[in-house]
Amino acid sequence: MAQKPSIPKGTRDFSPNEMARRNYIFDTVKRVFQLYGFQQIETPAMENLSTLMGKYGEEGDKLLFKILNSGDYLSAVNSEELTASNSSKLTTKISEKGLRYDLTVPFARYVVQNQNDIVFPFRRYQIQPVWRADRPQKGRYREFYQCDVDIIGSDSLLNEVELIQIVDHVYRFLGLKVVIKINNRKILAGIAEAIGEAERIVDITVAIDKLDKIGIDKVNEELIHKGVTHEAILKLQPILHLNGSNTEKINQIERVISMSSTGLQGIKEVRTIFNYLSGINLESEIELDLTLARGLNYYTGAIFEVKSKDVEIGSITGGGRYDDLTGIFGLSGVSGVGISFGADRIYDVMSQLDIFPKDAMASSKVMFVNFGEKEECYCLPLLSCLRQAGISSEIYPDSDKMKKQMVYANRKGIKFVVLAGESEIEKGMVNLKNMETGEQQLISVTELVIALKV
RNA sequence: GUGGAUGUAGCUCAGCUGGUUAGAGCGCUGGAUUGUGGUUCCAGAGGUCGUGGGUUCAAGCCCCAUCUUCCACCCCA
Asked: Do A328 and A386 sit in the same domain of this protein?
């Protein structure tokens, strides 16, 4: 007996119903991106490992899917290296390509390669799958789609504001209540500086990022464990206890980190952004969250994270400013800012809340019942007519029992059924049945198009 | 990568301290209704219990391995 086929861990098939709903998300995201003047690009599923490695921190490198070289991939390896069982060293010999881990780094690579043809500031969007060799769990897949929007080649904080508006716009269209959390890496750097641990910024931010999840005691524990001095941790406490409105928080933190010029720069940026936002009507809640860190280490300024207010699933959108991502590829002095919508998580949230529009399931609006060859010939021109009029329609391909055909139409959610048998043909009419109400009316062929056009 | 759960019919799940022929609901197929679905009634099909080993007179149940899914950690969309 053949073994049951399966797909790799953390990957999924999408049924027609799921695709209809996924496309609903992609379409709205796309519509908003275009509304804000962004242009679409695509990049290959695989990149050279040299492009990918070292861009996502230590953890990121581990999560890269690597592609075995084609052909005799062992030919470049000598027996010594083979028996050394040093997998990371061997990897570089037998694999030189990897699946993309996000869309931002390939985008930076694209910008550098095409810098002469790009009109800056470049507003691009990109909707493609990415792959991470993570262990799957709720809302975490090994293959998932990101919908990225980035503006590259401009320092203006107006771009941050644009992205926030896009986020608000998308979630308003999708009908999701979200909170947009904002922070700034420069403020985090300022904090590290202020407590005399500038070197440990990564450890510190990673630890305080967990504040609302594990509590202040555990955070302090972790900091001690990471080797942060007791004195520094003491200095950090007031920062962890910040509360109040966004402006109150800014004012408080400003006092704490006033000796750090980087920190003050971050404060200034955040203030500017909030100032812009004050004049704009947003539906989403905007929260300055000084514990927001985000793992990707190429962020240098603003960082964003969006969480659903109704479903606990981690962030559904995230991003930030990166001042020199293209520098690694040989084009320095180009700053960009972008965000990424996690389509799969948005899907999970919307499924759980059951807020997909009912008609997201695309199928024919009309089905012609098949009564036999003669009747088929009568129906075919009518079918073309409907399609010309933009009404999606189909004819049942076999003259099966009527019950079977009706069940088919019913299960596919087809709203109307056209019955054109011997008696209808004689009169030059058709019977149009509404599958929801069960009503049926005998109408002429011209009336058919009008009745369905609505 | 670390730790913990899970897998029984197409789906959701029962299945006692190991003991004959493994059950239910929904779905599916056929019929009541040969030109009318979604409601009702009747009948029927469908499982080598994730996979591979082991213990036992006897394994869905116990042990080991492996895979899947899920949960926590790490990290992240």
From this structure: no
CB of A1 within 7 Å of some strand B atom: yes
Q: Which of residues 397-416 of A touch strand B (CB under 7 A)?
A: 401-404, 406-407, 410-411
Rounded CA–C1' distance between A168 and B28, in angstroms: 45
Which residue has its C-alpha nearest to nucleotide B71's C1'?
Answer: A137
> Which residue is the nearest neighbor of B74, CA to C1'?
A59
Residues A357-394 have pLDDT tens digits of 876 666 789 999 999 999 999 999 999 999 999 999 99
Give pLDDT, residue A177.
93
Q: Are residues A368 and A330 in the same domain?
A: no
Please give the residue range of the domain that contains residue A125. 16-44+100-353
pTM of the full structure: 0.89
Q: Residue A234: which pLDDT band, with cuts at 50, 70 and 90? A: confident
Cα–Cα separations (whole angstroms), residue A177 to A27, A35, A244: 19, 21, 22
Residues 96-115 of A with CB under 7 A from strand B: 102
Express each pLDDT in A110-140 by its tens digit. 999 999 999 999 999 999 999 999 888 888 8
Q: Are residues A238 and A109 in the same domain?
A: yes
* Nearest-nucleotide field for A426 (CA, C1'): B35
Beta strands (DSSP E) in A117-243 are 122-131, 143-152, 178-184
Residues 6+ apart with CB under 8 A from A183: A270, A288, A289, A290, A291, A292, A293, A302, A303
The reply to whether A76 falls in a domain is no
Nucleotide nearest to A58 (CA to C1'): B75
| Tens-digit pLDDT profile for residues A22-71 | 999 999 999 999 999 999 999 999 999 999 998 887 788 889 999 988 88
Note whether A196 and A147 are same-domain residues: yes
- Domain boundary (A297, A325, A353) is at A353
ipTM, two decimals: 0.82
Q: Are residues A177 and A154 in the same domain?
A: yes
- Of A331, A353, A375, the residue at which a domain comes to its end is A353
pLDDT at A1 over 60: no
Say if A38 falls within a structural domain.
Answer: yes
Q: Does A337 share its domain with A409? A: no
Q: Is the CB of A387 under 7 A from strand B?
A: no
Strand B: which residues 296-315 of A lie within 7 A (CB)? Answer: 296, 305-306, 314-315
Q: Which bases of strand B have any atom within 7 Å of the beta carbon of a protein residue? A: 1-3, 28-31, 33-38, 48, 50, 67-77
| Alpha carbon distance A144, A345 (integer Å) | 9
Residue A19, amino acid: M
The single-letter DSSP state of residue A421 is -
Rounded to the nearest 10°, the torsion over CA A172, A173, A175, A179 is: -30
